[in-house]
Amino acid sequence: MERNKKNTLIKLLNVCLLALFFLITTSFNIPTHSCSTFMLSYNDILLIGHNLDGSRWRWRQEPGSVFINKRNTFKRSVSGYELNACDEQHVIEWISKYGSVTFNSFGRELPDGGMNEAGLVVNEMGYGYKDYPYNDSLPTMMVTQWVQYQLDNFATVEEVIKNINSINIVDWGLPAPIGGNNWHFFITDKDANMSIIEFIKGEVKIYTGDSAPIPVLCNYEYKRDIENIKRFRGFGGKRKIILKPKLLSYWFNQGAYMVNNYNAETNDDPVKYGFDILRTMQRPTCEQWSIIYDVKNSRVYFRTYFASNIRYFDLSSFDFNTNEVKVLPDILINYSGDIATYFVPYTYQLNCEIVEKSLREFLKAYKKLYSFENTGNTPEMYIEDRKKLVLKIITKE
Q1: Which CATH number is 30-346 given?
Q2: What does the pLDDT look like over 268-309, one tens digit per residue?
Q3: Three-point CA angle 210, 40, 300, nearest 5°
């Protein structure tokens, strides 16, 4: 009898624990991406490091391309609303002021992040909100295009902040976590100015200067991580920061610790140290891209989980005034060293192939992670709609 009571209590406890876990994971904004970014600024060193990692994505490769985007190019805003909207959307048109290099998952003009020739760097991280403010009188564009817009038009963090309320941002239509709907941004310039920009409950939250004391961003609200790290050594507390892969909440602390403890004498290769920071902050089993922007030297380094050689190229290898756009079509080829010669001339057909490949990869992911049952849609139909949208940005040239 006592044994039966004990077994019953154990089962009841297990049920309660499972219910509590479900409540916690469904009631709070727990990010499903695990990207991370840092800035390392020391004397003449200015490195911006960025990880793009995916939720349970080790079973698939995150496709990507590198685009060399030219100056003086006419562009127009596009949003997902244009697929089914009855009314004409407000748009904004512009001519790119700066050339840039961007890492893109979905073809030209839709970057995950990048750096322009003025030294502005923009990177995104997924987190638990996507409450972008919306004003009916303003032009609207997809969040990925918004990244390119910043690189096209601005040279400094101050300029980005000044114009932050001039455009509506909307997700581009793929369901989270895969679609990158819920982003906050880490933005820096050539003078090592930094800003964190978040969108929470319809309001823009901007951290810069004294309100952004740690140049690291991961997957929670910035102010949450700033408060949490105060419990650790070197940041006001007594707990030790352990540089091992652990819970999601540790990665911000690990990145902050390594940035603060950079020593130019013992770490004579800052780029290698930067990749060490990125490896420490990566989410185990979800690693995809790791990128370092060497702002002072106008050089970009990167590697991927499936193509692990570190390769690089210089912005000076490309002419941003030329009419010819260059592209590295596939970042998953395991080149090494200087890869500037592997960039090829851009064509509309090549862009179509890049978009098709990326969306097909995402289609595989949807079939594993999502159910389209009773939605009146299929994964194939959904992908075809997204293809129409992303190709709408680029006309045949």
Answers
A1: 3.60.60.10
A2: 899 999 999 999 988 777 788 999 999 999 999 999 988 999
A3: 130
